[in-house]
Write a structure and sequence with these properties.
The protein has 2 domains: 142 residues, Rossmann fold (3-Layer(aba) Sandwich), CATH 3.40.50; 160 residues, Tumour Suppressor Smad4, CATH 2.60.200. It has 11 helices and 18 strands. Helix 2 runs parallel beside helix 6, helix 3 packs across helix 4 and helix 7 crosses helix 8. The longest helix is centred in the middle third of the chain and has 16 residues.
Length: 325
C-alpha cells in the first residue's frame, strides 16, 4: 500500500495533479493505432481543462524529444509522460531520472510489465485518468554502465531473443502470441556460451552461461518463478540476477516448460542471487550486446550493474495496492 506523502513531495503532487502534461510517444508501439490512442486520450484530458501536448515521433527521435520535453517541463512545472511499450518508457525515463520532473505512463506495448507492476491500467482511457488524479510513488530503477532499466537488463541469449522477436513482429504483427512463438524458436537454437567473471560485495566468481538476466520488476520475476524471497528484495534497494548455465536442447525444453508454469527458479541449471552492485567481465570481449527493457545496444566491458540513489516520481492510481496480476 502506498505510504503517506512526505512534506517535501507536497509541491510535486500539486504539480502532478494541476500542471501541464507533455506526452512523448512512439507512434509504432503496440498495434500502431496512434490516431485512435490520441483521440481517446484527448477526450479524457480535455475534461480537466489542463494544458497538454502530444509529441508522437519515430523511435529514433524519442531520446531527443524526451530531452526537450524534460527541459520544458522543468521550466513550466509539467509532468512528462511516456506513451508506448517498455522500451519507449525506458527511453523517456532515462531523461526524466534526476531531473526533478514527475513521470507518467500510458502503456501501449505488448507486455507492459512496468505499468502493470505499478497498477497502471492498460487501456488508454483508464491510464489517462491516472494522469489527472493519480498519486506520486517513488520507484526504484536499475542501471548498467549508466543506462537505466526499469524491468530488466540482460546479455547472452536474451538480447538475441529480443532481436529475433522484433524480426517476427515486423513480419507477423505485434502480439503476445507472436512474441512467445519467436522466443521458442530462439531458445531451441544452438547458442554460443559466455564465460563471465562476477564480483559482488568484494566476492569474485566465474561461470559459463548462456544468459545473464538482471531483474528490477517483481511482477516479471514472479511470473517466471523466481523465489519471492529474492524478488521481494527489490523493495529494499536490490536487484536480482539469474544465470542460465549451458544446457542441452532437451534440457532447454525443460527450462522453457518451467518458465511457462512459473517454476523457472527451481530448474537445475538456473541460479539466482540478490545484489546491490555487480561487476561483470565477459572473457575476451571488449564490447557485448546488452538488452535493457526490450532494446538492444552494444556496451563496453566491464559491465557495472547497480541501483542509483535517484528514483522516479511516478503517477499511479490512488488505490494502487502493489503489483498488478
Amino acid at each position: 500500500m502506498l505510504q503517506a506523502m512526505r512534506p517535501d513531495l507536497q509541491t510535486s503532487q500539486q504539480l502532478a495533479n494541476g500542471g501541464p502534461i507533455f506526452i512523448v510517444g512512439n507512434g509504432r508501439s503496440g498495434h500502431g493505432d496512434t490516431d485512435k490512442f490520441i483521440e481517446v486520450t484527448t477526450a479524457v484530458l480535455e475534461t480537466s481543462g489542463r494544458p497538454f501536448e502530444f509529441m508522437m515521433v519515430e523511435p529514433k527521435q524519442l531520446g531527443a524529444t524526451a530531452r526537450t520535453a524534460v527541459k520544458r517541463a522543468r521550466a513550466e512545472g509539467a509532468t512528462v509522460v511516456a506513451a508506448g511499450g517498455d522500451g519507449t518508457i525506458n527511453t523517456v525515463a532515462n531523461e526524466v531520472l534526476g531531473s526533478g520532473v514527475n513521470f507518467g505512463v500510458l502503456p501501449q506495448g505488448t507486455f507492459n510489465y512496468f505499468g502493470r507492476e505499478h497498477g497502471i491500467p492498460e487501456t488508454s482511457e483508464a491510464a489517462a485518468a491516472v494522469l489527472l488524479d493519480g498519486v506520486l510513488k517513488s520507484v526504484q530503477v536499475g542501471r548498467v554502465n549508466g543506462r537505466v532499466f526499469l524491468v530488466n537488463a540482460s546479455l547472452g541469449l536474451y538480447p538475441q531473443l529480443l532481436e529475433d522477436r522484433e524480426t517476427y513482429k515486423e513480419r507477423f504483427g505485434r502480439s503476445r502470441m507472436v512474441a512467445m512463438i519467436s522466443a521458442l524458436y530462439t531458445l531451441l537454437r544452438r547458442h554460443r556460451q559466455l564465460t563471465l567473471n562476477f564480483e559482488s560485495d568484494n566476492v569474485g566468481t566465474s561461470t559459463r552461461t548462456l544468459a545473464l538476466f538482471v531483474g528490477n520488476n517483481r511482477l516479471q520475476l514472479d511470473r517466471i518463478g523466481i523465489e519471492e524471497a529474492q524478488s521481494g528484495a527489490l523493495a529494499s534497494g536490490a536487484l536480482v540476477a539469474t544465470v542460465l548455465r549451458p544446457i542441452s536442447t532437451v534440457g532447454m525444453l525443460g527450462v522453457i516448460l518451467r518458465g511457462a508454469i512459473g517454476q523457472l527458479g527451481a530448474a537445475e541449471n538456473v541460479q539466482s542471487f540478490v545484489f546491490t552492485s555487480l561487476e561483470v567481465v565477459p572473457r575476451r570481449r571488449r564490447r557485448i550486446k546488452v538488452g535493457t527493457d526490450g532494446e538492444v545496444a552494444w556496451m563496453r566491458t566491464p559491465l557495472t550493474f547497480d541501483v542509483p540513489s535517484e528514483r522516479l516520481s511516478l503517477l499511479v492510481p490512488a488505490t494502487d495496492q502493489g503489483s498488478a496480476k
